[in-house]
Amino acid sequence: MNAQVEMICRTGTAELQPSRLQRLGLWMRDHRPLIQRIQWAVILFYAVLVVLPAFLPLPDYEAHLWNNLTLFAQFLFWGIWWPFVLISMVLFGRLWCGVFCPEGALSEWASRHGKGRPIPRWLRWPGWPLLAFITTTVYGQMISVYQYPQAALLILGGSTLVAILVGYLFGRNQRVWCRYLCPVSGVFALLAKLSPLHFHANRQQWQAYRQQQQPLTSVQCPTFLPLRELDSASPCHMCGRCTQHREAIQLEARLPGSEIVTTSKQSANQWEFLLIVVGLLGVAVGAFHWSASPWFVQLKQMLAGLLISHDWLWPLEAHAPWWLMTFYPDQNDVFSLLDGAALLLYIGLTTLMSGAVIGLCLWLARFALSAPTQALYHLSHGLIPLAGAGVFLGLSALTASLLRAEQVPLFWVNDVRALLLAGATVWSLWLGWRIVGQYPSKGARYVAMLSYSAAVVWSVFVWWLLFFYW
Ligand code: SF4
């Protein structure tokens, strides 16, 4: 806070003490070898969790978290690791990416020793994170990635191999994979906008440094960001390497979500809009819903009835290999073609319905404000707290079911869920109010807010169905 005052100020006469955050940034910059050792430790841990269980027999009905590595890894990986990585984005920005992520670290390491080719144009296409998120989410459901270690190894191990390959081929000492292709980078970039921390470049300081004709040092940002304009926490991996660069860049505190109100007015784009409305509040909702949804059962029964009435029985019996659709006969868990088709259809219909309702509400809000299309993208950023909370709760449902199987008392879980959803709803409403206030159309502010609130109510409704109704 108050960076002007706390900035390490070298005007020739005064030298102010750095704040704690600035000292943390400096510490990160000066302790790269330690951070790299941490990264290798995480890589080792990740490899054990992802690779080993895939070669062990599947747990039987008597296995427990504490005596079966597969169950323990499943709990640690999907139940703790992933949900809390999402939380960490909101609390600390993308610190996870810059300091702990095994895939990012491996990709950067490969890039250090690789071919160093220029990044091709097709790879810079901004739609990759959205496409990769949707594909991995749907494919993950088709092969039951949360339940079976082979499926987890296929998706996560496959993604790690591609990350290494991309690092080896393109860029030098960079994270081309993280910047353009990682399936979760889009989601992380959205959640980091809520963070109270960010690396920020003070432009006056930058300018002053130039005018003092000081030596022009350079820093290689792994995600190759234009450091002079550094402000958003979205693309920054919080690695700390640029701390105090040109005496202008520092780790600073800010009001949580403030980036969404101000910076997003210019920076929000259609890909982020689609990731929120179609990806997080559409595809992800369908992916978490289907196993609990009575509508899914009805849909499947309807499709089965249709097939039987036409005497087409083979889709009810035919199945596919485990890497295409869930196939674990020993566990009595086999998807028929009908199951797979119903699953795809259910996720597709949920996405269509949810996307249409939220998109329409946001569009009406923009219309009421008589603002350009950019305002539509900006408004969608207000829903990030709800979208993030939903995905966190969806992931933590597995944590709860694994703990429940171990007889851990979880009477408090629904209260915590309700509290979290309520908090995210208030946050989204508050952000919406501030966003709407950014546009001059004063009289229409309440109409726009009403329409925006309808999008919020729908977003709460879809998660309420899953956790409190079904
Ligand atoms: S801007 Fe780049 S170098 Fe600076 S902290 Fe972020 S990722 Fe690291």
| Assembly state of the chains shown | single chain
Counted by DSSP, the helix tally is 21
Output the helix-strand order.
HHHHHHHHHHEHEHHHHHEEHHHHH
Largest sheet: 2 strands, antiparallel
Poorly predicted parts: 1-14
CA(first)-CA(last) distance: 45 Å
Radius of gyration: 24 Å
Estimate nothing, just give the exact number of structural domains. 2
Number of strands: 4
Taking strands numbered 1, 2, ... along the chain, how are they ordered across the largest sheet? 1-2
Helix content: 55-70%
Beta-strand content bin:
under 5%
Ligands, deduplicated? iron/sulfur cluster
Structural class call reads mainly alpha
What's the shape?
Answer: globular
- What is the average of the pLDDT values? 91
Describe this structure in words.
This protein is mainly alpha-helical and 470 residues long. The chain folds into two domains: 247 residues, no CATH class; 206 residues, no CATH class. Helix content is 63%, strand content 3%. It has a two-stranded antiparallel ribbon with strand order 1-2. The protein has a two-stranded antiparallel ribbon with strand order 3-4. Helix 14 runs parallel beside helix 21. The radius of gyration is 24 Å and the shape is globular. The two termini are 45 Å apart.
